[in-house]
User: Fold this.
Amino acid sequence: MECEPSELQRTLLFPLMLLWFIAMIFGISSTSVVVRVVAWFGIVFGVAAAGFGLKLMLRKGATLIVNEFGIDDKRLGIGQIPWTAISSVSTYKVRNAPMIEIWLIDESTYVSRMPRLQRLYVPIAKATGHSPFVISMIWLTPGFQPVYEYIRRFVPAKVL
Assistant:
């Protein structure tokens, strides 16, 4: 099973970023100091978001691959996780968006492969009782339920 953003999501992202940037440009020329400060913050965050959005738009191939060998989420940057390395899976919601948590037998092996910025999240996830290996299905098709059901064919659900 391969999951990737839909074409509609990919094509709508650029016009929304452009609209955001134009609004911030007009905000800079405002007479109100508060509006100008907010506009400058908007430009800074907008440029960062545009970089992330362009990375998503231009990515070739599937973002998430779940097959008989394991799970490979390109966003995690750790390569394929074989089914034998996964002890269980669980789910939770963040602002009504379902997430799939992957609980590994030996987390340290895969944590060392994570990009440095993502490794900063590991102690926070553990302190809050979550796994640092989380799959977000927000922008991906076919969606949460089919992917979770497919994963559950290979791995048991975590007993809480």
